[in-house]
Amino acid sequence: xxxxxxxxxxxxxxxxxxxxxxxxxxxxxxxxxxxxxxxxxxxxxxxxxxxxxxxxxxxxxxxxxxxxxxxxxxxxxxxxxxxxxxxxxxxxxxxxxxxxxxxxxxxxxxxxxxxxxxxxxxxxxxxxxxxxxxxxxxxxxxxxxxxxxxxxxxxxxxxxxxxxxxxxxxxxxxxxxxxxx
Length: 181
Fold this sequence. Notes:
It is built from 6 helices and 7 strands. By secondary structure, the chain is an alpha+beta fold. Strands 4-5-6-7 form a 4-stranded mixed sheet. Helix 4 links the parallel strand 5 (85-90) and strand 6 (122-127). Helix 2 runs antiparallel to helix 4.
């Protein structure tokens, strides 16, 4: 090979390696405060994405404030894709606890991680082979869940009272007047 072609061959090979490394990275969803944040992990499959989620944030990510609501030692029973629907079956530890916000946060992490996998648009969630009905307030997991539906749960907004429950006392009315001035 002529020497002048060598730099071009090396540049082409490095470009192909860079493209391959980008193509072999996937997104995993964790939490920072109450916000979902994504991190890159190696892999391209649904199983590798869910396994990375279950492993939790790295030590360095935890030091930066990333955390997870997925309980420790949850195991993946199975993960498959049919068309654009992923089915993820986890052990019962995934639904441990009864705090609605924590359960919905871990479901969000699962759905957002799974739907980041190429060609996956929705996730059918299974716990020990069954459908976990009624465990995730505002989210119907009897059917496949999308990233959009997880971001907009089906919970009615709180109603605003049309008038005060009791009339203001003279002292309260006087205080309101002074504050308004």
